[in-house]
Specification:
It is globular, with a radius of gyration of 14 Å. Helices cover 0% and strands 50% of the residues. It contains no helices and eleven strands.
Length: 128
């Protein structure tokens, strides 16, 4: 079993920065990939970013490319999503997830299907 706990959400203004954390416990970072997703009110959950452990391989949604950065601290069993230049349309509940599946391309982790465990989410609200 794996437990994922997100933190770092809050209310910020457009243009600000925010760093989300995803702390893992249990059968931790032997997983292959960590991803971040978000869900805005009335919308489907959507992919934000993914990274493959032990490599520099990352993949981002076009809507966040160049503004968000996904990373991981193996020693702390914690993943991060650095959010810069946030926009009101970034307002959502953000979820981290981990996957043990082995797809060749990191972009293949841009749907919910490959993920085995999910956190409970953290709210990010961006005011204009």
């Amino acid at each position: 079993q794996v437990q994922l706990v997100e933190s770092g959400g809050g209310l910020v203004q457009a243009g600000d920065s925010l760093r989300l954390s995803c702390e893992a416990s249990g059968r931790t970072f032997s997983s292959n990939v960590m991803g971040w997703f978000r869900q805005a009110p009335g919308k489907e959950r959507e992919f934000v970013a993914a990274t493959r452990w032990g490599t520099s391989s990352t993949y981002y949604a076009d809507s966040v490319k160049g503004r968000f950065t996904i990373s991981r601290d193996a020693a702390k069993n914690t993943g991060y999503l650095q959010m810069n230049s946030v926009k009101p349309e970034d307002t959502a509940v953000y979820y981290c997830a981990v996957s043990w599946r082995t797809y060749y391309y990191v972009k293949d982790y841009s749907t919910q299907t490959p993920y085995d465990y999910w956190g409970q989410g953290t709210q990010v609200t961006v005011s204009s």
